[in-house]
Amino acid sequence: MLDQVKGGLIVSCQALENEPLHSSFIMGRMARAAAEGGAVGIRANTAADINEIAQNTDLPIIGIVKRDYEGSPIYITPTLREIEELAGTGCAMIAFDATDRPRYQGETLGDFFQKARAAAPGKLLMADIATLEEAVRAERLGFDCVSTTLMGYTAQSAGHNIADDDFSRLKAILAAVHIPVIAEGHVDTPAKARRCIELGAHAVVTGGAITRPQLITKAFTDAIYAT
Ligand SMILES: CC(=O)N[C@H](C=O)[C@@H](O)[C@H](O)[C@H](O)COP(=O)(O)O
């Protein structure tokens, strides 16, 4: 799967319960549109959406399940329950939070990684990270790739954007780890996506700028009404 997506665009097709496009049917059609536009892969949330997307495209899917748990800020595939839900789908890769934040019931990332490997045989494992240190640790633990998904979304990385200073944080991660690095999060223009690939990112994941029309609309209205 990693060979298949090399140098290309993966489109994240997600709409949570509180979003206007929340619907597996719509995510399936979003994935079909992404395929028509030349995407090489899809990132999707929940087994239901993944199954629908698999009916609509042959593209490899990165699966996640977002779920909140009491006492932990981690919500991207946080426990074994979500890994098991994804193991039962046709997704090629499972992504989960690999940040340095407290996990549900105090579990360590290392322990969770081992359990995930055992519970999802045949699936690649992607580390969703926010910092350079987390990327290095993910490689050491044995993840198949890292993705910069959570950069800017954790206390440690607050205010960071992958594109800052000509992608300096992405460059530092690329220089430090040897497993494939996927550029994800705030890659919201074609020019940024191209730059990530030029710098050596294995692939780019773009979500909101393609599949969240409420955000796309807001960019237009903000510009029109700016004072
Ligand atoms: C932080 C978080 O929960 N990110 C999620 C991860 O799956 C998605 O909501 C994002 O859309 C995805 O990472 C792509 O990023 P962007 O939408 O910025 O292109």
From TrEMBL:
* Enzyme Commission (EC) number: 5.1.3.9
User: InterPro entries, per this entry?
Assistant: Aldolase_TIM, NanE, RibuloseP-bd_barrel
> Which reactions are catalysed by this chain?
an N-acyl-D-glucosamine 6-phosphate = an N-acyl-D-mannosamine 6-phosphate
* Listed Pfam families: NanE
Which key words tag this protein in UniProt? Carbohydrate metabolism, Isomerase
CDD domains associated with the record: NanE
Enzyme class name: isomerase
Q: Which GO terms describe its molecular function?
A: N-acylglucosamine-6-phosphate 2-epimerase activity
**Tree of life domain:** Bacteria
Pathway assigned in UniProt: Amino-sugar metabolism; N-acetylneuraminate degradation; D-fructose 6-phosphate from N-acetylneuraminate: step 3/5
Tagged with keyword Disulfide bond: no
GO CC annotations, alphabetized? cytosol
GO biological processes = carbohydrate metabolic process; N-acetylmannosamine catabolic process; N-acetylneuraminate catabolic process
- Stated role: Converts N-acetylmannosamine-6-phosphate (ManNAc-6-P) to N-acetylglucosamine-6-phosphate (GlcNAc-6-P).
Protein family membership: Belongs to the NanE family.
Its recorded name reads: Putative N-acetylmannosamine-6-phosphate 2-epimerase
Q: What species is this protein from?
A: Agathobaculum faecis
